[in-house]
Amino acid sequence: MNLENKIALVTGGGRGIGRGIVERFLEEGARVAIVQRSAVDQDLREDPRVMGVPADLANVSNFARIVERVARHWGGLDILVNNAGIMFERSVSEITEAEWNLMTATNLRAPLFLCQAALPHLRQRPGASIINIGSIEGIGANPDHTAYSATKAGLHGMTRALAVDLGADGIRCNAIAPGWIASDLSEAYLESFGDPGEARRSLNRLHPVGRVGQGADIGDVAVFLASDQSRFMTGETLVVDGGRTVKLPLPR
Ligand code: NDP
Q1: Percent of the chain at pLDDT exceeding 90
Q2: Among the four 2, 17, 30, 46, which has the fewest Cβ within 10 Å?
């Protein structure tokens, strides 16, 4: 197992992509703390290798308190995954300062200050790894996503800067830029089409691999980045999107 005896903190690990990461980490032998606003579900609660730490990362003023709780409980910290994030559509004409502040506080401020709080612990562990979950929207953009795209591009940039600053401490930092990963929200979106079946087929056709992603697709790459297998990689953003962003559109 690649993550035997490793301790990980995964933000937003209770559902969606974060859940995919948590489940793969557990399969690889890690113990995992999940930080999110809601309590973790029963399956996770009953697992002795999991601890839930409820916190609203957009409003936290003391990130050290979260990290200390995890490190005290498990006896250290090897891996930080900044996965929690929010996304909403707002046109440039409509977006308010409060909405911008919420997006940046959740998607950018929290990852940076969680890194800061985790540093004293990560510095003590050989092979420590930080993984930021960015997005292909840090590279391209969907309509009305100025704030979201800005935070994800920012997170990719922050990943490079952290890698430069933390290399001497033996801490690597990489990002994953997921493409379309199935979620409750994306399922509801597809169902809202007049012909959901055709919407699904047309979405699949955008992907050279012929399908959208699942949480485990990101979980597998996160295991790689968290483990010693990626020991010579830092500052990278890995696009994991089934080939969607490399497929050039043609008239049809
Ligand atoms: P979900 O909405 O399914 O899950 C988001 C997770 O983050 C939940 O566990 C949620 O828990 C937690 N979270 C949200 N806000 C906060 C907060 N203020 N404080 C603490 N925890 C919070 O999202 P996805 O799984 O789809 O996305 C996960 C990450 O992947 C995000 O960063 C997203 O931008 C990125 N991404 C997603 C893609 C996709 O197609 N799904 C594509 C590309 C990137 P709770 O609500 O209980 O706080």
Answers
A1: 95
A2: 46
Centre of ligand 1 to C-alpha 85, Å, is 4
pLDDT in tens, 9-52: 999 999 999 999 999 999 999 999 999 999 999 999 999 999 99
The string over 87-124, giving b where at least 16 C-beta atoms fall within 10 Å of a residue's C-beta and e elsewhere, is beebeeeebeeeeeebbbbbbbbbbbbbbebbbebbee
Residue 61: burial class (beta carbons within 10 Å; 0-12, 13-18, 19+): exposed
Mutate to test the pocket of ligand 1, among 36, 132, 156 (most ligand atoms within 8 A of CB): 36
Q: Known catalytic residues? A: 148
Distance 178 CA to ligand 1 centre (A): 12
157-202 pLDDT per residue, tens: 999 999 999 999 999 999 999 999 998 888 989 999 999 999 999 9
Find residue 177's DSSP bridge partners: 239
State whether the beta carbon of 37 lies less than 6 angstroms from ligand 1.
yes
pTM: 0.98
**Architecture of the domain made up of 7-242:** 3-Layer(aba) Sandwich (3.40)
Task: Say if ligand 1 is within 6 A of residue 36 CB.
Answer: yes
Structure tokens at 251: 């008239």
